[in-house]
Specification:
Length: 366
């Protein structure tokens, strides 16, 4: 089902909900993963979980950049700050905990030079204003934001600005999906695939997941009717035993994605092993700057190492992003860990599953 307008039409929503119930009729239990944290937020905000048949379950996946970035990355960032670097970051990362519990917000409160940016290019202005200091942009994220972040280095190169670099924690979504399917204690019948990432990599990028693992993949938008239509298609495919890739967001996503963004990524980056919270070290699941671009790599240039780091005691954020548990199953959820006093990154990020459940779905669950 394709939508061009009326994404929140209640009549259409009721029809889709009826379709979900009809498609899932029977005793078979189905479990689907919404990979993207914005899908998780949409499901909670619009009360979509209540529209699902009782035998259909939705679990969160490793699609929130802050949630999957290991605490060791924050350890490295704070070490660069300790050495005198100016740190530039998106706001979501400000309260994410390092291995020892410190945060960028705490470092800034203690006098550290941390700037919150709305665009990576703001770090270029910081570098121009302080030519004697090293400016490091904390470059995390999936394919959605990788190309715009790389433009910081492209513009700096063109302008001859050399006191800016990237501390990268770039991630690739498809290897993470494959890793989830390889996890023994997670059983999934299909994926609701992230639309923003898909605009870059294209819907065809999920074909290996469908073909190798026999799971259907459906790309769906973030509007409530998009989500319901995507879930309806997933139920139909799973019950029919069809491991196919369907694009329910064709008004934005194409089969091959954005060729200019993909070309920029290939020009500047190379696939590399990466640490993921909840999934461990996954081969070729991240991107690193190519050796001929090493001058823009803060870790190589300034001599820091990004490892897995330590997790907050009792926090099960890693199990949440791997789809092993729902947020209320973490013993800290809603007790020691709240949006005002977050312990783990899943409660910190605006795309975090714990933040979504706490805000929209915790009534009667804690």
């Amino acid at each position: 089902m394709r939508f061009t307008e009326g994404f929140r039409d209640p009549t259409v929503a009721r029809a889709l909900a009826a379709g979900l119930r009809a498609a899932a009729a029977g005793d078979r239990r189905l479990c689907f993963m919404e990979v993207c944290g914005t899908h998780t937020m949409a499901v909670g905000r619009h009360g979509l979980r209540a529209l699902l048949p009782p035998n259909v379950r939705l679990v969160s996946g490793p699609g929130c950049p802050v949630c999957v970035t290991p605490s060791g990355y924050l350890d490295a960032a704070l070490e660069l700050g300790r050495r005198g670097a100016v740190l530039a970051t998106f706001g979501d990362l400000l309260h994410a905990p390092a291995g020892d519990g410190r945060t960028l917000a705490g470092w800034r409160g203690a006098g550290g030079d941390v700037h919150v940016c709305y665009s990576p290019l703001e770090a270029l202005a910081l570098a121009e204003a302080a030519p004697s200091r090293e400016v490091v942009f904390l470059a995390i994220g999936f394919e959605t934001t990788i190309a715009p972040t790389l433009m910081l280095a492209v513009r700096a190169h063109r302008a001859g600005i050399r006191n800016v670099s990237l501390l990268t924690s770039f991630r690739r979504v498809v290897p993470a999906m494959e890793a989830v399917l390889a996890t023994p204690d997670v059983r999934l019948d299909g994926f609701l695939c992230p639309p923003h990432v898909s605009t870059v990599i294209g819907a065809d990028a999920y074909r290996p997941v469908a073909e190798r693992y026999g799971r259907p993949c459906v790309v769906a938008g973030f509007e409530p009717l998009d989500v319901l239509a995507g879930l309806l298609e997933l139920i139909r495919l799973a019950t029919a035993g069809r491991a196919e890739v369907h694009n329910e967001y064709a008004r934005v996503v194409t089969p091959k994605g954005n060729p200019r963004a993909r070309a920029l990524i290939e020009e500047w980056l190379t696939p590399s092993d990466a640490w993921w919270r909840g999934l461990g070290r996954l081969p070729d699941s991240g991107y690193s700057l190519r050796p001929d671009r090493a001058e823009w790599d803060a870790a190589r240039r300034l001599g820091v190492e990004v490892g897995p780091g330590a997790e907050p005691r009792g926090c099960r954020c890693g199990d949440v992003v791997a789809g092993r548990i729902d947020p209320p199953e973490c013993p800290l959820f809603g007790r020691r860990c709240t949006p005002d006093r977050p312990v783990g990154p899943c409660m910190v990020s605006s795309e975090g599953s714990c933040a979504a459940w706490y805000r929209y779905e915790r009534a009667g669950r804690t």
